[in-house]
Design brief:
By secondary structure, the chain is an alpha/beta fold. The chain has helices at about 1-15, 25-35, 35-65, 70-80, 100-105, 115-125, 125-140, 140-150, 165-170, 180-190, 205-210, 235-240, 245-255, 270-280, 300-310, 325-335; strands at about 20, 25, 85, 175, 195-200, 215-220, 260, 290-295, 315-320.
Length: about 350
C-alpha cells in the first residue's frame, strides 16, 4: 500500500543521512538497494503493526462514543458495495488546499472595506453570504481567477487519509470540492474515474452511473471553470432552491445507496437540507447515511444527533484532537474488515 509505504520511507529517512566520506544517501534508499528482501520484509512487518495500531485506536474511541455497532453496520453495507463517499474540503486540507472560510477571508486583503462583514458572516457559518459579498465586490472574472489560483493547482504533493479512498471505494465519489485531489488520488492507484460530471452535466449522472458506476460527481463545480460553480448565495439558490434540480439528482443517486460524509462539517449545509426534504417527502424508507464527525468539546450531542437524524445521517464520532489521524484510523479499520468479533 503506497500510502503506508510513503510513511515507512519517511520514518526511515528521519534517522538521518548515511554518510560515506563525501557522499550522502537517504537510509531508505540504502536499505532498499543493499538488502531489497529485508527492506520489503521490514516494510510488511511495519505496515501490519501500523494497521493494528490504527484498529486499536479506532476501537477505543468507537466504544467510548458508543459508535462501534454503527461502524460495523457501515462496514457491512460497504461489503455489499452500497456506500459512496461524499468528500468535503477537510480531506483536501492536508494536501495544502484551504478551507472555504480561510479562502474567502484571504480574498479580503485587496478589499479591506468588506473584511469586517465577510468575517462576521464566516463567524456565523454563513458562507454563502460571505462568498456573495466577495463576488459582488470583486466581480465575476476576478473572483473566478482567485478560485482557480487557490484550487486549480495539480502539482501539490498528495497527503493525508484521502489517499486511502481508492483502496476502499470503487463505485465513484461525490464531492463539493473544487480541487483535483480525488482525480489524482484515484489515478495514482490505477483506478481512474470512468466519467466526471459537473455543472449541467450532473443531469446525465444518474443514468450514466447505471452503466459506468465508477464516476466522480462534482456537485459544486471545479476550479478551472466557473460553469456550474456553486459557492455564492445566488448559485446555491439556483441549484438547491425551488427551481433547482439538486434535490432530484440526490433522490435518484441515493435510491439504493448510502453516503459516507468525510471531511464535511455538516453544520449549515444545503446537502443536509436536501436529504432532509427527500426523507420527509419519501413514501418508502430511504437509505441511511453516515458521517465521520469530531465530537467537539461543548457540543450538544442530543441536538446535533437529532439535526442529522432528520436527514437520516448517523454520526460516527471521533476525538477532535487529531482529525487526520482519526479519519485514517477509521478508514484503515474499514479496509481491514471492521470489528465483527
Amino acid at each position: 500500500m503506497e500510502y503506508l509505504r510513503q510513511r515507512f520511507v519517511e520514518e526511515l529517512n528521519d534517522e538521518g543521512l548515511v554518510n560515506v566520506r563525501t557522499f550522502e544517501w537517504p537510509p531508505a534508499d540504502v536499505l532498499q538497494t543493499m538488502a531489497p528482501h529485508d527492506y520489503e520484509a521490514h516494510f510488511l512487518d511495519w505496515a501490519a503493526i501500523q494497521k493494528q495500531n490504527a484498529k486499536d485506536r479506532a476501537r477505543e474511541f468507537l466504544e467510548r462514543f458508543n459508535c462501534l455497532d454503527r461502524f460495523n453496520r457501515l462496514h457491512t453495507q460497504l461489503e455489499r458495495q452500497s456506500v459512496i463517499p461524499f468528500v468535503g474540503a477537510g480531506l483536501s486540507r492536508p494536501t495544502g488546499f484551504p478551507l472555504w472560510g480561510k479562502f474567502l477571508d484571504a480574498l479580503t486583503a485587496d478589499y479591506p472595506a468588506i473584511a469586517g462583514k465577510v468575517r462576521a458572516h464566516l463567524a456565523g457559518y454563513r458562507y454563502e453570504e460571505a462568498a456573495q459579498l466577495v463576488l459582488d465586490r470583486m466581480g465575476s472574472d476576478v473572483f473566478a481567477e482567485a478560485v482557480q489560483n487557490a484550487f486549480g493547482s495539480r502539482i501539490k504533493t498528495l497527503k493525508g487519509p484521502v489517499q486511502l479512498l481508492p483502496l476502499i471505494f470503487r463505485r465513484g465519489c461525490l464531492t463539493t470540492n473544487f480541487d483535483y485531489v480525488l482525480n489524482r488520488v484515484y489515478e495514482a492507484s490505477d483506478c481512474r474515474f470512468k466519467g466526471e460530471f459537473a455543472g449541467t452535466r450532473l443531469n446525465e449522472a444518474p443514468r450514466r452511473l447505471a452503466d459506468e458506476p465508477h464516476c466522480l460527481l462534482r456537485l459544486h463545480g471545479e476550479a478551472d471553470s466557473s460553469q456550474g460553480r456553486v459557492l455564492t448565495g445566488g448559485e446555491y439558490t439556483a441549484c438547491y432552491g425551488d427551481g433547482g434540480n439538486y434535490r432530484d439528482i440526490f433522490k435518484l443517486l441515493i435510491a439504493n445507496t448510502s453516503l459516507l460524509f468525510l471531511g464535511c462539517s455538516l453544520s449549515v449545509d444545503r446537502t443536509v437540507d436536501a436529504l432532509r426534504e427527500i426523507k420527509r417527502a419519501a413514501v418508502v424508507e430511504t437509505p441511511r447515511h453516515y458521517a465521520f464527525l469530531p465530537l467537539s468539546e461543548g457540543m450538544d450531542r442530543v441536538v446535533r444527533r437529532n439535526e442529522l437524524g432528520q436527514a437520516d445521517i448517523h454520526p460516527i464520532w471521533y476525538p477532535p484532537e487529531d482529525h487526520d489521524q482519526a479519519i485514517e484510523d477509521l478508514l484503515i479499520s474499514l479496509m481491514e474488515g471492521g470489528f465483527h468479533d
